[in-house]
Every structure is written in structure tokens, then in C-alpha cells.
Design a protein that fits this description.
The complex is a heterodimer of chains A (758) and B (150). Chain A has 758 residues and is of the alpha+beta class. Chain A has 19 helices and 30 strands. The radius of gyration of chain A is 27 Å and the shape is globular. The two termini of chain A are 42 Å apart. Chain B has 150 residues and is an alpha+beta fold. Chain B has 2 domains: 76 residues, Beta-grasp domain (Ubiquitin-like (UB roll), Roll), CATH 3.10.20.30; 64 residues, [2Fe-2S]-binding domain (DNA polymerase, domain 1, Orthogonal Bundle), CATH 1.10.150. Chain B has a 3-stranded antiparallel β-sheet, covered by helices on one side. Chain B has a two-stranded antiparallel ribbon with strand order 1-2. In chain B, helix 2 crosses helix 5. Chain B starts with a strand and ends with a helix. Classes of the chains: A alpha+beta (758), B alpha+beta (150). Chains A and B meet through helix 6, helix 8 and helix 18 of A and helix 1, helix 2, helix 3, helix 4 and helix 5 of B.
Amino acid sequence: MIPSFPFLKRQSVENTSKVFIPSRRDFLKIGSLAGGGLLLGVSFQCTSKDQSQTFSPNVYLSITPDNTVTIIAHRSEMGQGIRTSLPMIVADEMGADWSQVKVVQAEGDESKYGNQNTDGSFSVRMFYEPMRKAGATARHLLIKAAAQEWDVDASTCTAENSTITHSESGKSLTFGELASAAQQLELPDQDTLELKDFSAYKLVGKDTPIIDLKDFVTGKAVFGADVNLPGMKVAVIQRTPVVGATITEYKADAALAIPGVQQVVKINGSGNPPGLNKALEGLAVIADHTWAAIKGREVLDITWNLGDNASYDSKSQLESMKQSTLEEGMVRREKGDFNQARQGAAQVIDRTYEAPFYAHGTIEPPAAIAQFKDGKMEVWAPTQHPQWARDSVAEACGLSADDVRVNVTLLGGGFGRKSKPDYVVEAALLAKETGIPIRVQWTREDDLHHDFFHSHSLQRIRATIDSNKNLTGWNHHTVFPAIGATSDANELHPSDGELGLGCIDFPYEVPHIRIETHESKAHTRIGWLRSVSNIQHAFATCCMMDEVAEAVGKDPVQFALDMLADDKKLDFSGEIKGDFGNYGESLEDFPWETARLKNVINKVAQESGWGKTLPAGSAMGFAVHKSFLTYVACVVELTRDSSGKIIIPVVHYAVDCGIAVNTDRVRSQFEGGAIFGTSLANSSAITLKEGKVEQNNFDGYQLVRMPQSPKKINVHIIESSRKPTGVGEPPVPPLAPALANAYYKLTGSRVYALPFEL
Amino acid sequence: MATYSLTINGKQQQVEATEDMPLLWVLRDLLDMKGTKFGCGQALCGACTVLLGDSAVRSCTLPISAVGEDSVTTIEGLSENGDHPLQKAWIEHIVPQCGYCQTGQIMNAAALLNSNPKPSEEEIEQAMAGNLCRCGTYNRIKEAILTAAK
């Protein structure tokens, strides 16, 4: 049994959410409502708690007499715009004046707020309907309150700009004026609640500016390290140079002699395996300010017992992974008989694809603040998963989760790194140990040395072609240290969850398919990075499809369309050996539709002018890849500039993400995803030698900069009334293969390893 | 430890610090001015960019003892009401995603416009190459600078 990895463990809440009116007691707890108003909660019924319990005041929505509508943002903001996208759904459905809406960030408490794990591109997918219902409930109550006041039929009243209007009489009252009366009414039946038609929305489906814009450009936005507590000290930690190493001895005298350094405190690490939510072994220098802590750390004298991973070399592991793919592996999907295809083949194309470890490189390095007072721990952290941070802090500090409060700041980038709460645990451990409020500050070197890396990988694909130029067999071997191995050393194969990300769900109609995995061990912390194993799987699959297209004499776009064959819903039934995750959703709710994939292929071909004659020194490459339930096709154009250097003048994306809630943020995620993908394709790699990461800062670990980035990124959004799906991760996977395929067209050289230089 | 007198956003400030403390930590930890961000500590990412006189400097590697007489401008002092042409253009183009690197980007762009009020696209790319954005907002940054330079 290969367990799925943590970020896919979740429950769908769409059909079980319920709006409720909090108790009178809860109402009074909200200080701002002392003067009356309307307060609504939303229960998502997705926690393990007994449904009969009285609800805590999970206020999602309140209206005060001054006509301010306050909406809770319960998901973490890391650049995807979720603090805007979810509240604007509520506001639009209500008919609220967006300029009078205030958004307040929720603390981490899933028993109150439902799933807060901001990961896996599922915030909008999961909460679109519940947010609409919350807004519609409020609108219904306000209209009813107005209709009663005027003694008219509710159906003759409308809600717009935070005002209820009775058109016949011209009477109107603001939401604020009606809020207290609305609070007294009975809730409408949730099942028959009338929701607005999509065409009636004024914010949803449009370009809506993000709410934090002004704070971002004036420096007022509060990120993790910006929180300041009275008496707070700063901790900089010397962590284990090799995962699993322990401190045998240390001398802190020199560090303590640095002006401003107050204490040196040891943190006992989790050992091996390191775990996804635990602190690494280390020595913390606690000082009055960051600089003294950094200087103090430089002069620590530590003797390490380096342990088993001290002989680890990532390059030699890739070599042995490559060897393993020459043998038979564990079969994870089987259709037909690949050996039969091979025997009857006129041509076999046999290629291996290599991708390195990647670090997240959020420009905000991890930081967290903790204060331990009267037996209770309060933390402030840029975390994607506040409830996990809360539980992990409680576990590490021997506290009950009820005694831990997690305040969520803005995140200076997340990309999966800040799902893992190890840095929050460090701050809490130090605050508990010292009794002082502590900010743990990671430096860039810390971030690159001690990340939860995207795993390096080796893939071998064999494609068989018969004498009629048909692709008859597809044999994909994939091997990479699994995320699960970070917590369980016995996990030697990629999990079903990891294979469900662009490998096992190979959608093309090939008669003989075999997908196999091989063993490999983790010697460092492995985590998930924006789009996870879709990165390597899309790279190998889309590059091989391009190569096969050429071998059968077809245009790659036409070849992909042909291989998808008739419109159908894929379920891979009987072929996949384990669990086909479908990103945690049922195939009934979110079917795998080849027609939608073909549609984005056609769209991107049309918009990019695929097939047109390009000037000499220019070429286009194509890739198509569905991930996180969103259909994406990508065309990258390359050209040689006057100096002979290859640049990326334009990237085209066609995307079908169902309803696009905030079209501007959909586009911005794709613009950013293209640049993120360009870094993965051209610039970034982490390597380990003697168990240690070899890159120290942004000189060794390169990210693309403005001159190397695609000059234009055109995002073509398919108009759709289908359920919304995520856009944070789906832009990333097809970029590297589209770029590699363009590179081949331009230079004649196929790309088999990332990163490759242009 | 020594006492340094700095002019920051037009205001005289006295701080006590060791001579090697980078201006970044003076701003953030001693003066509680959090708009200037820490990204790499090695002048490789530009998140900590401030103006020294009219020029952009990476405050993470500028020791306080090297600041001298020139005035320091941080994002908090770029404009009174957040209405510098660059800030307005940033809002118009909805540039930020996570927002973290943006104050450094804006300060670097301000220095560019100080020295070159009408930069070409290529000049913008070269001038902004030292500022990393992991979210990938480069193209909107470019557009916003072009708008502000109009």
C-alpha cells in the first residue's frame, strides 16, 4: 500500500456547506457589532467534529450599521489573489458595494473555518459554491427585512451597491440600515436558495483588482517577519548540514561575546527520516536584532555526528536511478501488452529524461514569530496550512491545540514551501524554552540548504511505432525519491498521488501502455513545489510526444489531436493498479474530458498562428498538459536576436479552468507560471554532495531575471460555465516541454535534461 | 557600537549600531520600518533596494558606516500618499502577486527614472535585472515603468 501524500488529503465541501446565524453570545463577542448588525457564519461540515455541537463563531460575513460589509478570508494569500477572489464572490452574490467591503484574515482553526490548507490549486474549486450561498443568504435576509419594512413583496426588491431598492416606490435602504432587522429573520432554506445567474455578476468573471494593492505598493503590507512584539528577540539557527546529523558538542562563547547576542539554545531535531512538520537539529543564536544573531551564528563552534546521509551524492543517485530504469519495475498502469507492441514495432524510440532537485526560492525566506504566555502559545507566520502549523506546534511543545493560536500573515511567496510548518515549530520551541517572544529568521542560505526540495527524477520512455507509422506502445518508467519518504523511510516508490500528477493519467489512445516505477531513497527533505511531479512528467511526456510526431511524419499539434481520438471521458478503469486520485475529486463531478483538452489545443494553435511561416532564426514549440483538473495548452516561440542569443519573444497559453472567477488573477497566474516554468527549464538546479546542498544563494541557485523571461505572455481563457478549477499550478508543467520542443526546432538538438541553457 | 546620524525620508534619525550592521537591519530592526525587505543578504535579489541620494542601493550589503551624508529614501518615503507615478502605474497594471519583492522593484524603478526618464524596454530590462520576482510579475513591472515614464 502506497499512501497518498498530505496535500491531497482533503474532503470536498461543496455540497455540505451550510450558512447559519451565530448565537447571541457569539454575536456579542464581535466588538464591532455592539451597535447592531448582521452576522452570518458558514459551516463547511468537513471536520471530524460532531455535527450536533454548537458552532463556534466562524463569522464569515458581518454587516455593521455604517454599511461596512466584513468578509473573512480563511485561505492564505501568497500571490494567487485568494483574499480577493473568494470575498468578491460573496460580495457579488450579495449585491454589496465592493468599495465598502473589508476583508479580515482568519486565524488557523479548521473546526471553525473548514479546510484552510492553501495548496493544490483548490481554493476556488472548493469554495465557489459555498461563497455564493453565503452571499445569497445575506441578500435574501436583507431583501426580506426591507420588504417587511415597506410591506411589499420581496420579489419586487433588488440588492445592488449595498442598497435594497423597491423600484415601484423608489424607496431604498442601505444594507447597514437593514442589518439589525435582517439578523432577527429566519434563514432561508439552503437547498432552494436562488443564486444569481453568471451573467448578473459584476465582479465574478471580470478583472477585479486585488484588495492588497495599495498596501503592497506603499510597503504597508504585513508579511511574516514584519510582525513586531514588545521585547521580541531574533533567532538565527545553525541547522544540521546533512539531514539526520546531530550535535555532539558545541562551544557558544564566541557567539555570546558578539554585542547583542543574548542566548544560544539547542534545538533537538527529528533525526532520520526528518518528517514534513518537524524542526531540524540545530543551534539557535538569540539576539536583540537579526544582524547580531547572524554574526553570532558565524562564530559558533559545533561538532556534528553527520550520520548516514554524509556520503550522499545526488549525481551518483541519478546515475543509479538511470540504471534501474533498464530493468523491470513495479507496474502501475497496464493496458494491452507492451512487449507485443515492441515485438511488432518497426521503430522503437527509447529516451531518458532527467530533472534536478528544485528549491522553492520564495523571495521571503521562512520566518515565524512566537510568544508563550500563561501556558498558551501564539504564533504569527506566513503559512499555507495554518491548522497543520497549529497541530505541529502543539505536538512539538506538548500543548493542546486549543492552547495554540496561529495568526496568518501575508506570504512572500509559497509554492508549497510554506505548507510545511517546521519554521513555525522552531519559533514556538524557542519561545517556550526562553519565555521570550521570538522571531525565527531564515537567511537565504538557510532556505536553499534546508528546503523541502522538489525531487530530482529520472524517466525513461519507450515508444513503439509500427510499419504504418502508428504509435502502438508507450512504456514510461519513472523514478524519484517520494515525498512520503520524508516521513517514512520505507517509501521507496512514488505514491499513487504523485503518479496521478501527469504520469498515470497519460490520456492518449495508444493500444499498449505500461507505466512502471522503481525504488529510490530520499537523503534530504523532499516536498512539493508548484505543480509537483507534473513538472517532470509533463517534461518527459510532452517531449516524447513531439519526437514521436516527428517520427510518424505529423505536425505535433495534429498528432496530439489525433491521438486523443474521439471525444470521451477517460476513467482509466482496469488499467491503473492503485488509486487514481483525480486531485481528490470524483470523476462524476470533474470528469476527464478529451474534448476539453482538444479545445485548448485548437485554441492555442489558432491564437499563436501555429503552422505559419516564421522568419529565419525563429521557431515554435508546443505542449499540452492537464493538471489540477485544468486543461492547458502552451506554445512557446524562440528567436535569435541580433547578437545570436536565443530569447523568448512570446508564450501563448490556452486555458480551460471552467468559470474564471477573477480573470485578471487567472491571467497573472499564467504570466507568473510561464516565468516560473522558464526558471525550471533554463536556470535552476540543486545538487547535493557529501549530503550537503552545493548552492548557497541566488548566485548558485539561479532564477530567471527580467531579460531572460518571456517578453510577452498571452493567456487565452476559454469561456466556460463549468465548475471552476485551479490556476495556480497548471501553467507550470507544459512550459518546459514547449520550450524544449521549440529549442529542438530552432537548433536541431533535443533536450533530455533540465535545466538547459538557451 | 557607535552613534550614526542618518537622514531617512527627510527625517534625521540617530541610531546606535556596530559599524558593519547593514542599512537593511538598521531600518527593519532598529527603526521598525518594515517596507524594505530581506531577500538574500548578498545583493543578489534586490528586495532590499532603497535610494541613497538618487541612486538605488542594496541595503542588505551597505554597512551603516558607509551610508555617509546622502539621504536615504525608502518605500515609506517615496511619496506622501502612495501616489508617486510609479505607485500609480503599479496599481493601474495590478502588478503585484505576493507583493514581497515589489517595494524593492519600485525603488529600483524610481532610481532608473531618476537617471533615465524615458527608458526603452531594453533599458528597463537591463536596469531591473538585479531584482528578482519569483511570482513572475516582470512583464507587468515593465509595462508599469513605461506607463510611469509617459
